[in-house]
Amino acid sequence: MSRLGPRRTDLPALAIVAAGVVVGFPLLTALALRTVGAAHGTVFVGLLPLATALFGALRSGERPSAMFWLLSLTGALVTVGFAARGLDGPPGPGDAFMLAAILLCGLGYAEGGVLARRLGGWQVIAWATVLSLPVSLPLALVLRPAELTAIPLPAWAGLGYVALFSMLIGFVFWYRALARGGIASIGQLQLLQPFLGLGVAALILGERIEPAMIGAALAVATCVALARRFA
To answer: Where on the phi/psi map is residue 12: left (φ > 0), alpha (ψ -120 to 50), or beta?
Structure first.
């Protein structure tokens, strides 16, 4: 396989990656967060490792042990339970958007992990981004703000960070890790994401770290370590 680009047979898989992580997940979560809060969205993010493992088993042929699935489910329940504290109200459109986003993202992670074994991490996300341009570029032009000068500098900085680190550089390492360490096993590391986010919020924004957060984070870290061992 040439390192210069994917084969024609790789295009359907790249299309799945593009639909899942380049277009689907960012778009659906943005739509969801118009009607639900960030804390509410975190409830669904706790399900992403489990979705990644399920699609990894379907798409890559991985067969984790029963103990792995038990630990993965336990970690997901702890994360969701912690994030769901204090939430109320019936499910709404925002919940449907978040659930669809998690399913698409899990599929995109699994498909990208399989592709990265042949193409490499940077090729997967780079070509998936290129493949999504016929959709993303027209949408960006149509939905652009009327006055670009009215957008504050912090908003531009946030957009630049998401584009460069979250949607490009981060995926290079992420897909390489999925390819080398196993989709189901490495995917469990996402269970730590909500707690890392809360920790950064405490350091940068001065938010209070509750004892429950420390206990839940330790429980999740234990599930992640054991799940990777039994994967």
So the answer is: alpha
As given in the structure block, the two tokens for residue 13 are 């898989």
The Cα-based distances of 156 to 22, 49, 126, 149, 161 in angstroms read 19, 30, 22, 11, 9
- For the full predicted model, state whether its pTM sits above 0.90: no
Query: How many beta carbons lie within 10 A of that of residue 85, not counting itself?
Result: 11
**CA atoms within a 13 Å half-sphere pointing along the CA-CB vector of 153:** 0
Distance, CA of 193 to CA of 35 (rounded, Å): 22
> Do 23 and 132 meet the contact criterion of CB atoms below 8 Å apart?
yes
Average pLDDT for 77-88: 73
Q: Is 144 helix (H, G, I), strand (E, B) or coil?
A: coil
Distance of CA 152 to the CA centre of its chain: 27
Q: What is the DSSP string of 58-90?
A: HHH-----HHHHHHHHHHHHHHHHHHTTT--S-
Question: Is 112:124 a contact under the CB 8 Å cutoff?
Answer: yes
Helix (H) or strand (E) holding 98: helix 93-119
pLDDT tens track for 213-230: 778 778 888 888 888 777
With bands split at pLDDT 50, 70 and 90, how would you rate the model's confidence at 190?
Answer: confident
- pLDDT attached to residue 90: 66
